[in-house]
Amino acid sequence: MIVMGNNIWDYDLDKLIDPKSLKDVKKFHQSTTLANRMNSVRPINDKLLEWLKKAEYSQSLPNIYEYEVMLTEGTEIKNESKRKYSKRPLNKEEISIIMSNAFSFNKGYDHKKYPSAGGLYTITPVLCVLDKNNDFLECGSYVYDSKRNSLKKINTFSNCDLKEIVNILPPLPNKEVISNYFIAYAIDIKKAIAKYKKRGYRYSLIEIGLMAQTLRNTLDNFNDELGELCWAGFDDNALSSLIGLNVSDFPVGLIQWFGK
Asked: How far apart are CA 67 and CA 72, in angstroms?
């Protein structure tokens, strides 16, 4: 399992953390996970399904307001999720530009392209490569080092692992992976709550959303062929374990497929 930081840092952090906040956050996070294969978060209630037809692609607005001000139309930006991929491999230059532009620290500054509460950056992006024919990266999972702009391999995917991923990430069309690449956003639970206690968990989820949007913007600006798709319905603990993460301390909060 992956361990972040060093023994001294981890020991000091353990002494600073509020144990009740840590217990409550871990318990709450586990209450949101899916544990069964082929499980689904889709509703089974017909009335709820009917409501969803009206609620999807809409916005909650006040019924009563003082007045309304119409604004000038802005430039339309057509960026939407990409659901079909050619699964062509990405080369070193493409992977380098994508990871660096989306997740690295800005040169000369201690900030990234997206904000983080307290500048803590509690989310670690893990690149997962499912393509066995990639000349640049072996099939497996890689932690992105935002300071060094490097990929640190933490696990190699066997043929059995690749089959298991299909079961972990249902429901996949035709029981095949959507793309050969995805980013797993891992939450450093202890780091998240050290300063802000339980509220830090909320900030971490916000950070995941900001990172996902940053990756989308990076792909849109880099190449018209590239696209992405956020995916939250998966066997949480099984995925975290398979890619080499500690299920309790570094759970995966979201994955984001990307590719051509």
From this structure: 17
Q: Residue 203 and residue 238: Cα distance in Å, rounded?
A: 24
pLDDT at 175: 82
Angstrom distance (rounded) from CA 110 to CA 120: 10
pTM (2 d.p.): 0.91
Residues in the chain: 260
Encoded tokens for 190: 């202890």
What residue type is assigned to position 89 of the chain?
Answer: P
Q: What tokens does 20 get?
A: 């009740």
Amino acid identity for residue 94 in this structure = E
- In what helix (H) or strand (E) does residue 220 lie, and over which residues does it extend? helix 199-222
Burial 32-58 (b: 16+ CB within 10 A, else e): ebbeeeeeeeeeeeeeeeeeeeeeeee
Structure tokens at 44: 């089974």
What is the four-CA torsion angle of 90, 214, 179, 33, rounded to 10 degrees? 140
Strands of the sheet with 252-259, listed across from one edge: 150-156, 140-145, 123-129, 181-187, 252-259, 227-231
Tens digit of each residue's pLDDT (9 = 90 or more) over 57-111 = 999 999 999 999 999 988 877 678 999 999 899 999 999 999 999 999 988 788 9
Contact call for residues 115 and 210 (beta carbons, < 8 A): yes
